Amino acid sequence: MNIFRLAGDMTHLMSVLVLLLKIHTIKSCAGISLKTQELYALVFATRYLDIFTDFISVYNTIMKLIFLGSSFSIVWYMRRHKLVRRSYDKEQDTFRHFFLVLPCLLLALVMNEKFTFKEVMWAFSLYLEAVAILPQLVLLQRTKNIDNLTGQYVFLLGAYRAFYIFNWIYRYFTEPHYVHWITWISGLVQTLLYADFFYYYFNSWKNNVKLHLPA
Amino acid sequence: SPGIILHDEL
């Protein structure tokens, strides 16, 4: 474990807590894409298949349980909770996430570290995580006013993968044989997808104006 | 076991 990876995991945890806080306290999911939340639940479900078979560390297991629990409970809140579901913007959140899942699955079948069920699922989860934010970014473009919690949520979600990139660089130089092209490329693509959001988020913060993305 | 690749990151 290195400081970059710890910072990345904590930032990722913060993003989830910010979202749960928003949904649980103000009983609203306005501006949040259910499609993205469903994709994240699928990402964790396919990435943490080894949670009970390969023990890495207590930290690793606890964090996996937190990410699995939070992502599925957010989907449950947005689909089932009578108050929260009313604030879900079904008409605007129309990204066909099936068109993200299928290419990722096909790519995982072709590009993986080993052609085993677990490794294909692991590669699938990495490709899917890279694009899972797209429905949320599309929704942000459509809903003009972005409330602070939603902006913070997306910012933290993008920042966590940026920290991970520093972690991969650090591990590449400090650990022999640490080479994971699949992780590195999908992680880089994922971070780049946030680039324009970061640009507008930083500018809104610098000029102290409300965050809004150009149409 | 050598067969499996251990992914230690979240």
TrEMBL record, chain A:
GO MF term set: ER retention sequence binding
Source organism superkingdom: Eukaryota
Location relative to the cell: Endoplasmic reticulum membrane
Family: Belongs to the ERD2 family.
Name of the protein in question: ER lumen protein-retaining receptor
Keywords assigned by UniProt, alphabetized: Endoplasmic reticulum, ER-Golgi transport, Membrane, Protein transport, Receptor, Transmembrane, Transmembrane helix, Transport
Pfam families assigned to the protein according to its UniProt record, in alphabetical order: ER_lumen_recept (PF00810)
GO biological process: protein retention in ER lumen; protein transport; vesicle-mediated transport
Protein species of origin: Musa acuminata subsp. malaccensis (Wild banana)
Bilayer-spanning residue ranges: 55-77, 98-115, 121-140, 152-170, 182-202
Record-linked InterPro entries: ER_ret_rcpt
Its membrane topology: Multi-pass membrane protein
Main location: endoplasmic reticulum
Cellular compartments per GO CC: cis-Golgi network; endoplasmic reticulum; endoplasmic reticulum membrane
